[in-house]
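This section describes the prediction task in plain terms. A model, or a person checking by hand, is given the sequence of a single protein chain and must write out its three-dimensional structure as a string of tokens. No templates, partner chains or ligands are provided. The sample shown here is typical of the held-out split.
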Amino acid sequence: DLEGGFYGIVTATGEQYLPMNLAPEFSVDGFAVEFTARERLDLSTTEMWGVPVELISISAAGRQETPLTGSWKLISYRDGAAWRTPVPGMEITAVFGDDGRISGSAGCNRYFTSYNATNTDLTVGPVGSTEMYCAGAMDQESAYLQLLATASAFMVEEEILTITDQSGRAILTYHHEIPKASGTGTIVVTFSRTGGFAGNDDHLVLYQNGSAEVTRKDYMTRITVPEETVNAIANLLADAGISGLSDMYPAPQEGADLFSYVLTYGDKTIRMEETAVPDVLRPIVDLLCEIIVTSAPDDIAPPFPS
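The expected answer:
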């Protein structure tokens, strides 16, 4: 955190870079990262510090696999003196990557943050998330994310993960959702597509290593996206000047059966109506929609009469 209230990246050889799209979970003093970026010499900044860059990828540096590494599903969370289980149909997950990042579902929204684990000590960075609303899930989601942010230590016994706060009190318990893996890595983009004639409710999380999570209403699947597609999307996002775009692109005229899109790249979230997608984002939206449509069955479309 540099004087003036902003975060920058200083390399081992002293070069200074000012990222335009640094995610909140990396806005931590002294946090070592590995990154690739594109210089944005066309931009002038009020900070007057470093070279402006658009991050293409960023991850924690020098991470090792720990007992936390893998995918976990929440069993229960503390609510005062009581324990509560997740609302049915609103499961909460946490994927601890070996790159020092956590991602998952908070029941309604996707969330992401950084973590550091040493022996049994655990610290969690600032949490970012998408901004959807789900009836009956928001109190649970808020409680979970607040508890996660207070994590101080952890213990894994017989595939059960218990996280405790600074007082040593257990606050979250999980069980392994899938066998331990190397983690999903850095998130490239999260994307939602809702509305349309069939009442779609589609969500996509795309990771740098090509893995992706696709949710279509109650159907969820994990897929692998071809490397060339991931690279194409990452390059288009880097070239789009996301930080300079508006947060909202409403439809110029109201219309029935239009799609609504929400795209999150770094710490920037853009909401768009189908007829108002900026030209610079149209190829990105088309590619993300294609991933959704081709990877999961469209079982929410109403049957058509023969």
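For orientation: The chain has three helices and 21 strands.
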